[in-house]
Amino acid sequence: MTVQAQIIEKIKAYDTIIIHRHQRPDPDAFGSQMGLAEILRTSFPHKKIYIVGKNVPGLAWIASMEEIPDDVYQNALVIVTDTANAPRIDDRRFDLGKELIKIDHHPNDEPYGDLQWVIAGASSTSSLIYKLVELSNGLLKLNANAARVLYAGIVGDTGRFLYSVDSETMRVVSELFKYDFDVIAVNQAMDSISEAAAKLSGYVLENVNILDSGVAYMILTNEIVTSFDLGDAGTAFVIPLPGRINTVKTWVIFEEQDDHSYRVRLRSKQIIINGLARNHGGGGHPLASGARARDKDEVNDIIDELDRLVRKSTYGYGKE
Ligand code: AMP
């Protein structure tokens, strides 16, 4: 039996299913989690289906999370979407259930759980959730809201079809569009930023450092971020910006944390950067990875390593 068929069997067998996703969620994390919940609720009205983790005001248009007591996990099936490694799972009770399933599209660095369905090359976990419906021989049913949130997840993780996009992704989008939801409203929600965010975007584009090699970097200290008064919006919207500059090949944004370490967000047009991320305790996709830097010294090390990596790669749009 394929792993997808085994997952469908588990879903059939359990009355209570709790769905988790990663911390610091993005639209694909929320979309795959909520999309699966909507599908399961539509397909099995008598099962108890929950989504858990922290609420994110900026993603409230996709889903709001539920609070459940620990005892709900007894005899429950737990499914984690879009999360490569167990330490990143939001709501640490993910292992209190009877069985654990991982559905993800990141490299399978940590195959946690009893069953894993991981397609590392897929453009999003939301598209995998749609595939699960197709593979279920009519057992799993989509509704318009599931289609809406899965589409939001796909738009999010493909960078609005700029990055990891392929014919399979567009086929899934085409299928989702057969459901009655407001596509333009999703596109506008994905494209909107606050005035404060617009000002920080201007700051990043004006102040980003660009090395001769084509490496761009920006250090966002707490002081800088606080001065823009972003509220709870986070800074995810600035991450793609340096990549729009035509001389930039790879870029990295360092975000200072409360403990003065730095969240490291690496992106690249062609040169593979997840090995570098792994060398600094992180990981991720070949062209979109993350890590953590202890201090300014490690920040400088990462900039140097990236500079060396880009210099030794073939110039232009070729091989690494
Ligand atoms: P981010 O820059 O946080 O949006 O992350 C980009 C990609 O890198 C995502 O696919 C994450 O799963 C992955 N990633 C980010 N931070 C880490 C980390 N500390 N460890 C492993 N993977 C990470």
UniProtKB/TrEMBL annotation:
<dbReference type="Pfam" id="PF02272">
    <property type="entry name" value="DHHA1"/>
</dbReference>
<dbReference type="InterPro" id="IPR003156">
    <property type="entry name" value="DHHA1_dom"/>
</dbReference>
<feature type="domain" description="DHHA1">
    <location>
        <begin position="245"/>
        <end position="311"/>
    </location>
</feature>
<dbReference type="InterPro" id="IPR051319">
    <property type="entry name" value="Oligoribo/pAp-PDE_c-di-AMP_PDE"/>
</dbReference>
<dbReference type="Pfam" id="PF01368">
    <property type="entry name" value="DHH"/>
</dbReference>
<feature type="domain" description="DDH">
    <location>
        <begin position="17"/>
        <end position="154"/>
    </location>
</feature>
<dbReference type="InterPro" id="IPR001667">
    <property type="entry name" value="DDH_dom"/>
</dbReference>
<dbReference type="InterPro" id="IPR038763">
    <property type="entry name" value="DHH_sf"/>
</dbReference>
<protein>
    <submittedName>
        <fullName>Bifunctional oligoribonuclease/PAP phosphatase NrnA</fullName>
    </submittedName>
</protein>
